Amino acid sequence: MSTQQSLFYDWKKQNAQQGFTLIEVMLVVLIAGVFAAMVSLSVGGSETRRVLQEREQLVNSISVVRLESEDQGRMLGLLAVDQTAAEPARYFVMQFDPNDPNKDKRWKPAAGFKVHPLPTGVILTVSPLQDNSRQTSSAPLNDITSSILSPKLIWFGNGEATAARLQLSQEGQPIGDAVEVTTLGRVKKEDTRLTDSSSENGQ
Predict the structure, then answer these.
(1) For a 10 Å CB count at each end of the chain, is N or C smaller?
(2) What is the full DSSP assignment across 91-157?
(3) Dihedrals φ, ψ of 194, to 5°?
């Protein structure tokens, strides 16, 4: 084989190898892209599930607070706090101490309950569904709610509560349906199930 033919053969071989390598690179890029998309969907789906689970956790927390309030006769409240530069949004249970002379300090963190932090970007809004004119057996409601730390959702320890609507949201978008608490301190759907059950037993 002449030198010219040998050089031509080597040139063709190099170009063939380069073309094959390019195909390999394209396949690797394609596979990597598909894999990245799958990972992204998996992570996004996991984050969505976590956020939706926050609503179920909130409903469970309400049930626990109601039972504790009724069983122990404790006046408890649920206080929501917005996100700050140092801490995420969160909610926690407060207890009313009528004996503290300082009205701003009558609501204190309740013993036996932990602060519940929310995922980044998630906030809890609590809106009362009734006026503040009613009174409890222990104190007028306006005295109970006069503190700067007064919760908008309160269980009075006697089976009653302030009706309220609780909405979790992320970046301005609601997360699921709002949770409504009745004057019995239960989530509204729980009251509906209890009513339906009573009707069936009556039949």
Answers:
(1) C
(2) EEEEEE-TT-S-GGGSEEEPTT---EEPPTTEEEEEEESS-S--B-SSSBHHHHT-STT--SEEE-S
(3) -65, -40
d(CA 74, CA 83): 28
All domains in the chain, ordered by first residue: 40-202 (3.55.40.10)
* pLDDT 10s digits, 103-137: 878 899 999 999 999 998 999 999 998 654 454 54
* Torsion, CA 193, CA 194, CA 195, CA 197, rounded to 10: 80
Task: Place 2 in a pLDDT band, splitting at 50, 70 and 90.
Answer: low
